[in-house]
Automatic annotation (TrEMBL):
The lineage of its organism: Bacteria, Pseudomonadati, Gemmatimonadota, Gemmatimonadia, Gemmatimonadales. Residues 20-251 form the Histidine kinase domain. This is histidine kinase. The chain holds residues 484 to 752 of 873 of the full protein.
Length: 269
């Protein structure tokens, strides 16, 4: 399970990196390839440099093929954003989360009533919960910052908040509106200031080699940002950690099986 988790985190991060890098590379390779063909056309066919230029052309073609494969790979991570009830997502993940955190940690859930619908990929939200639970577990089972490392409580809380221009917190550069809130709180060893400052960076980890990839929070950040939300960390050494995620609430859409259709058909069609 641990190995699968780490693998999933890596794939997600690699996919995102690959997509971004491949796009830029593709543009650069187009410039290289284009100018190369001008130079070759300008030189007489029997020019001594032609063989070397042909070699460069082959290498750049090969690079383009590799980039295409990279792009194909990153696109393979097909996301299917759907209207999701966050409470259902949390309930659905509970069993797995309990298995991840083990016996020494108590899982408490405080699911709000009428928590709104979010538009997100269910698999990605599971990944968010898992990554945060793994971090919480590690923080509660590792002795550090005066914490005994003998367990604790992991709390999952859901609710809804309305942000207007006045109440929007400075850390949440979000448009005014209604947001669904997920809070993941642990009673673990917490973070010092440096760790907190770097925690979301890909590959930043304070865990021993092999134990952490440094991709957990970077992945969480990426997923939440993709869904139009934001994430915040509150943590201090010995004080535990609270992760707060806000996701925009969307109007509930009729589900399959509902009577009536959506979108409403235009008369005469
Ligand atoms: P990893 O867990 O692989 O180290 P993350 O990106 O998930 O990577 O976390 C980066 C670092 O942030 C961790 O190594 C740890 O120092 C710190 N961290 C993350 N979550 C917590 C938490 N709940 N409590 C204390 N420290 C945390």
């Amino acid at each position: 399970l641990e190995e699968q988790l780490r693998q999933a985190q890596k794939m997600e991060a690699v996919g995102q990196l690959a997509g971004g890098v491949a796009h830029d590379f593709n543009n650069l390779l187009t410039v290289i390839g284009g100018n190369l063909s001008f130079v070759r056309a300008d030189l007489p066919p029997d020019h001594a440099a032609q063989a070397d230029l042909a070699e460069i052309a082959r290498a750049s073609d090969r690079a383009r093929t590799l980039v295409r494969q990279l792009l194909a790979f990153s696109r393979k991570q097909v996301l299917s954003p759907r209207a999701l009830d966050l409470n259902e997502v949390v309930r659905g993940a509970e069993k797995l989360l309990r298995r991840v955190i083990g016996e020494e940690i108590v899982l408490e859930t405080a699911l709000g009533r009428d928590v709104g619908i979010v538009l997100a990929d269910a698999g990605q939200l599971d990944q968010v919960l898992l990554n945060l639970a793994v971090n919480a577990r590690d923080a509660m089972l590792t002795a550090q910052h005066g914490h005994a490392g003998s367990g604790g409580t992991l709390t999952l809380e859901t609710g809804t908040v309305t942000l207007d221009a006045r109440t929007a917190p400075a850390w949440a550069p979000l448009a005014p509106g209604r947001y669904v809130r997920l809070i993941v709180r642990d009673t673990g060893h917490g973070m010092d200031q440096t760790t907190r400052a770097h925690a979301f960076e890909p590959f930043f980890t304070t865990k021993p080699v092999g134990a952490g990839t440094g991709l957990g929070l970077a992945t969480v950040y990426g997923i939440v940002a993709q869904s139009g939300g934001t994430v915040r960390l509150d943590s201090a050494p010995g004080q535990g950690t609270t992760v707060t995620i806000l996701l925009p609430e969307v109007e509930a859409m009729p589900r399959e099986g509902d009577t009536g259709s959506w979108p409403v058909p235009t008369p005469g069609q």
